[in-house]
Structures are given as C-alpha cells and as structure tokens.
Specification:
mainly alpha, 0% strand, cytoplasm, LZTFL1, coiled coil, Leucine zipper transcription factor-like protein 1
C-alpha cells in the first residue's frame, strides 16, 4: 500500500478527506454529464442544423459547464480553507504556529504520489466498505481532561507573567530616573573638577562612589524583589524617596563645596599676586593717560 509518510491516525484522516473529495467530484461530474444530456434531449431533435444554431447551442453549453466548474472550484477552495481552519484551531490551543508551503502544491512528484495513494486505497470496493463503517472521528480538544487543565494553567501563567512584566516596567522606570539623577550629578562634578582641580574634589568623588554603590545596591534589591515577588510597591517607593533625598543632599554639599573652593581660591597667593598686578597695571594706565593729556589740545 502506498504511504504518504503519516502515522496511522493521520493517514486515516487523509483517506476520509479524499473520500469526501471523490464524492464531491463524482457528483459534479454527474452534473456536467446531465448538462450534455439535457442538450441532446432538448435541442438535438432535428437531422440538420445551421452553423449559427450549432454555435448557439455550444455557447449555451459552454456557459452552463463553465458555471458548474467555477462553482465547484470555488467550493473546493472554501472547503480547503475550512479544513485548514480546523487544523489551525487545534494547533492554537497548544500555542503552536503551523506553516504552509504553497509551492509544494504544484510538486508533480508529490502529486503523483498522492494519486498512487488514492488509487491504492479506493480500487478495492470491499476495503472501501470496511473503511466506511469504521470512520474515526476527531476527538474535540475543547472538552475537559488534561487539555483543559493545561489551558487553564497556561492562562494562569500568562496572567502572572503580564503582572510581573508590568511590575518590572515600573521598577525599570524608577531605576532609570535615579540613574538620570546620578548622571546629572556626575556631570556637575566633572565640570567642577575642570575648573577648580581634581585634588579639591576627592571627598566629593568618594561621596559619588558611595552614592553609586547605593544605587547599585538599590537596583540589586529591585531585581531580588522582582524575582521573589514578595516586596510591595510601598517599599520600592520608600527606597526611591531615600535615594532622592541622598541626591538632594549631595547636590547641596556640592554647592557648598563650590563656594568654599572659590573662597579659598581668592585667599591663595596666586590670586593676590594677580590682583596686585592688575592694580599696578591700572596705576600705569592712569599715569600714561595723564602724560597724554599734556599733549592733547584743550577743547
């Protein structure tokens, strides 16, 4: 017996579909034969016909046969869609994604293999009768049992997964805000280091490092909280408020440090020397202007 590479159950399903297709094909062929027979019985009653009469009869027969064939082809296409709908619906219950290759529908080798399979299955009338009486029915998948429990468990897991995703998005948003504040603070420190010198900001850099460790620890705590699913939203908000207070405190200390550094800079020898030089230059400019005024005419 020819085989199509299916297991026994699926091969029986293919045979059932081919039996259905054969019955539809036989019915449509009988309809087309009846069209020709009706033409013979109703029109071919005379011995001779003119060319116009023959052309008119053939045209009418062509219209009828064309409509029958078109109807059958459309019905076959729609029937195949319904068959695919059954298969896809069963696959989706188990979250499977089936794929089709339309190019394989014109594979001559496979088509000949199907033809041989059909010929081998339906040549014996006794075998046909036996299979007619023992047609298996496809068991529904939407009833109770293991599949129903599996679907419920999958739905529950999906709902829990969506909740965890929403929680993760909230935590990521809050952590991102804290990291943005840290980045702004780091930029301010770098700008201050360029102006006043790196040696004046060792203490503040250490504070920033401590703050980074605090943020890293907070992020780690967020991840642990997410994985364990035990921490509440209020705890996360409290941690973020504490971090915000720390950031504000460091910003205030930075402002004070900047003022202190500016004050110390004004007390350095370099600042005093520069001030004395500017004072001397101003005195020289005044002296030069006095000298120039002696040579300028009075207005």
């Amino acid at each position: 017996m020819a085989e199509l590479g299916f297991n026994e159950h699926h091969q029986k399903e293919v045979i059932n579909y081919m039996r259905f297709a054969r019955s539809r094909r036989a019915l449509r062929l009988k309809t087309i034969d009846s069209c020709f027979q009706d033409l013979k019985d109703s029109r071919l009653v005379e011995e001779t016909f003119t060319v116009d009469e023959v052309s008119e009869m053939l045209h009418g027969l062509q219209v009828v046969v064309h409509g029958e064939v078109e109807t059958e082809l459309i019905n076959t296409a729609h029937t195949n869609v319904l068959l695919l709908r059954q298969l896809f619906s069963q696959a989706e219950k188990f979250y499977l994604k089936l794929q089709t290759d339309v190019s394989e529908l014109e594979n001559r080798e496979l088509l000949e293999q199907v033809a041989e399979f059909e010929k081998a299955e339906f040549t014996s009338s006794s075998k046909k009768t036996n299979q007619e009486s023992n047609k298996p029915k496809l068991a529904p998948l939407n009833e109770g049992g293991v599949s129903e429990l599996l679907n419920k468990e999958i739905a529950r897991l999906q709902e829990e997964n969506e909740k965890l995703k929403a929680r993760l998005r909230t935590i990521e948003t809050q952590a991102t805000s804290a990291l943005d504040e840290k980045s702004k603070l780091e930029k301010a420190l770098k700008d201050l280091q360029k102006i006043q010198g790196d040696e004046k900001l060792v203490l503040k850099t250490k504070e920033i490092t401590n703050l980074e460790e605090t943020v890293a620890a907070l992020k780690t705590d967020f991840q642990k909280t997410l994985n364990a699913s035990t921490a509440t939203q209020k705890d996360l908000e409290d941690n973020l408020v504490t971090t915000k207070h720390d950031l504000l405190k460091v910003q205030e200390q930075l402002a004070m440090a900047e003022k202190e550094l500016e004050k110390k800079f004004q007390q350095t020898a370099a600042y005093r020397n520069m001030k004395e030089i500017l004072t001397k230059k101003n005195e020289q400019i005044k002296e030069i202007r006095k000298r120039l005024s002696k040579y300028e005419p009075n207005e």
